[in-house]
Amino acid sequence: MAGPLKSGKVKTNINLSRKKFAIVVAEWNAEITEALYSGAVESLIKNGVKKQNIIRKTVPGTFELTLGSLWAAEDKSISAVISLGCVIQGDTPHFDYICQAVAYGITEVNIKTKKPVIFGVLTTLNKQQAIDRAGGKYGNKGEEAALTAISMLSF
Ligand code: DLZ
């Protein structure tokens, strides 16, 4: 995995067994987003999060991650939200609109709720690039997003 979180475990002095996480999963490209979800869950558990403290929410597509993540973050019991989606470029500019909207939307949710809302969205040119980043040769974006959530809670 690129970035600072290579070991799969985050050094933290917070008690993760008491923290509750929401994972919001987009259904579009489900084969990929389910792999991201598994990576995120495994990573949270490996770092001491209790299975019953991981709440899954599903939205239709990546565009809907913004509102779904806002709803999840508004729940007072939730410490951090992990937003998972996969947008694969097609023949029209739709890709650009969805990617821009969700990146901006998730940023807004972070600011509005003052909670870590992690951008676990793959934006790829083709399906193979997505497979490579959903448990393939370039790691798992879901795992990376989970580690980022824990890092942010340790701020
Ligand atoms: C419409 C659409 C398209 C073309 N591609 C994707 C995609 O690659 N990944 C994804 O998560 N969602 C896609 N969507 C659906 C939109 O995110 C959204 O659900 C619809 O535009 C309805 O708001």
Automatic annotation (TrEMBL):
Binding site for (2S)-2-hydroxy-3-oxobutyl phosphate: 91-92, 133
Annotated 5-amino-6-(D-ribitylamino)uracil binding sites: 28, 62-64, 86-88, 119
SUPFAM superfamilies, per the entry: Lumazine synthase
Keywords for the protein's UniProt record, in alphabetical order: Riboflavin biosynthesis, Transferase
InterPro entries named in the record: LS, LS/RS, LS/RS_sf
Active-site annotation: 94
Catalytic activity: (2S)-2-hydroxy-3-oxobutyl phosphate + 5-amino-6-(D-ribitylamino)uracil = 6,7-dimethyl-8-(1-D-ribityl)lumazine + phosphate + 2 H2O + H(+)
Record's keyword annotation contains Transferase: yes
Pathway as given in its UniProt record: Cofactor biosynthesis; riboflavin biosynthesis; riboflavin from 2-hydroxy-3-oxobutyl phosphate and 5-amino-6-(D-ribitylamino)uracil: step 1/2
GO molecular function list: 6,7-dimethyl-8-ribityllumazine synthase activity
EC assignment: 2.5.1.78
Cellular component terms (Gene Ontology): cytosol; riboflavin synthase complex
One Gene Ontology biological process: riboflavin biosynthetic process
Domain of life: Bacteria
Keyword Transferase (UniProt): yes
Family: Belongs to the DMRL synthase family.
Protein task: Catalyzes the formation of 6,7-dimethyl-8-ribityllumazine by condensation of 5-amino-6-(D-ribitylamino)uracil with 3,4-dihydroxy-2-butanone 4-phosphate. This is the penultimate step in the biosynthesis of riboflavin.
Annotated protein name in UniProt: 6,7-dimethyl-8-ribityllumazine synthase
Native source organism of the sequence: Ohtaekwangia koreensis
Lineage of source species: Bacteria, Pseudomonadati, Bacteroidota, Cytophagia, Cytophagales
